[in-house]
From TrEMBL:
PANTHER family: N-ACYL-PHOSPHATIDYLETHANOLAMINE-HYDROLYZING PHOSPHOLIPASE D. GO terms for molecular function: hydrolase activity. Residues 103-296 form the Metallo-beta-lactamase domain. The lineage of its organism: Bacteria, Pseudomonadati, Pseudomonadota, Gammaproteobacteria, Alteromonadales. This is Hydrolase. SUPFAM superfamilies: Metallo-hydrolase/oxidoreductase. Coiled coil: none annotated. It comes from Shewanella inventionis.
């Protein structure tokens, strides 16, 4: 009964905060950025079902119990080849070598994807390389301002080893506030591009939203990205719901050697701004790419599905639709001349909760403990507010 009263009080407070925020925002903020097809509203009618889903869902495996296999990277290992390659470092953090230059996407190295480091989604694994060990970076690309993509501590540490920071409109203001020299920062509107000695970076549309607090909803732009070197062309979806923009991007800039498409943190309740795996696969087909690397998974628990579910679902779908998938371990090279690293690494650390095995039951118990911690954190993140 006490719990129910707490939930009701919490919900009433949430309603008050949403109402006050909207009122304050309307009075004080500049015109928000918008999507091209679907407006994403987080009114009461959408928050209540999401709150209920978080309350009612029994989690089995929100996070891996066993260590996530990593392939440690160093500058020595990276310099063993100069060929174009992609290395997943975590979630949507991607290191890429094109024509001998390094590009880093959505660098998140902090322990938690959160406004604070004492609460919020905690990473499942370390980065396979530290910021200190990274080689000199030609360009950092940021997709949008959510905490699982824009990490203040990482930006502060990267400022000295990065030549250019490329962001959607207004996101660059965070970077300069955190100490990056404004001369290093280029902000782009959708379809605008920048050329850096043979490397072309184009901001393309995405269907998402932005904000790092309660009062800054959609005050900065979000984007997907085309990254074109002399030999290879890559598409990165950023965070996005499924929309017609993917076909437009394919027609204007396809075919791509590789697509890196968000495949994780999805739910029917917020599918306007995060794709279900079936939609991720369709986005890959729409942009006209040869090989798909599913990203936005494997590092943080940001939704209600099991941590490994995105890998399992996209792997099955790719087989059904004859799509070539690359699911490298974190730190493992996907060579662009032959981008096939379809490792089923997550299967080695998947847990079957229905087993009689004593060791596995012990793991389930640990998962329950983890689950409690994660559930606590989730209260602050209801509505998928910051991902
Ligand atoms: Zn995200
Ligand atoms: Zn996001």
């Amino acid at each position: 009964m006490k719990i129910l009263a707490g939930v009701i009080v919490g919900f009433v407070m949430l309603v008050a905060i949403v109402w006050l925020t909207k009122t304050w925002s309307a009075a004080n903020k500049s015109k928000p950025f918008t999507n091209s097809e679907k407006a994403y509203q987080t009114g009461l009618s959408s928050l209540w079902p999401i709150a209920k889903a978080y309350w009612n869902t029994q989690r089995q495996a929100p996070a891996p119990v066993n260590a996530v296999p990593l392939m440690t990277l160093t500058q020595d290992i990276l310099s063993q080849t100069h060929d174009d390659a992609i290395y997943r470092l975590g979630h949507s953090t991607i290191l890429m070598r094109l024509d001998g230059e390094y590009v880093l996407i959505d660098p998140v190295f902090s322990e938690r994807a959160s406004p604070v480091q004492w609460a919020g989604p905690k990473r499942f694994h370390e980065s396979p390389i530290s910021i200190a060990d990274l080689p000199a970076i030609k360009a950092v690309i940021i997709s949008h301002d959510h905490y699982d993509h824009l990490d203040k501590a990482a930006i502060e540490q990267l400022a000295d080893k990065v030549q250019h920071f490329i962001t959607p409109l207004k996101v660059g203001e965070y970077l300069t506030a955190w100490g990056v020299d404004p001369i290093q920062v280029t902000e782009l509107e959708w379809w605008q591009s920048v050329e850096l000695n043979g490397l072309t970076i184009i901001a393309t549309p995405a269907q998402h939203f932005s904000g790092r607090g309660l009062l800054d909803r959609d005050q900065t732009l979000w984007a997907s990205w085309v990254i074109q070197g002399l030999q290879h062309k890559i598409f990165y979806s950023g965070d996005s719901g499924y929309f017609g923009g993917f076909k437009d991007i394919g027609e204007r800039y396809g075919p791509f050697d590789v697509s890196m498409i968000e495949t994780g943190a999805y739910n029917e309740l917020w599918s306007d701004i995060h794709m279900l795996p079936e939609q991720s696969l369709q986005a890959h087909i729409d942009v006209n790419a040869k090989v798909m690397i599913p990203v936005h998974n494997g590092t943080f628990d940001l939704a209600l599905h099991d941590w490994f579910e995105p890998f399992e679902r996209i792997n099955k779908l790719a087989k059904q639709h004859h799509v070539t998938l690359a699911t490298p371990k974190f730190g493992q090279a996907v060579m662009l001349a032959n981008p096939q690293a379809n490792e089923l690494w997550w299967r080695d650390i998947m847990i079957n909760p229905a087993t009689d095995d004593v060791e596995q039951q012990d793991n389930v118990r640990k998962m329950d403990e983890l689950n409690e911690v994660v559930t606590d954190h989730k209260i602050a993140y209801v509505g998928n507010s910051f991902t």
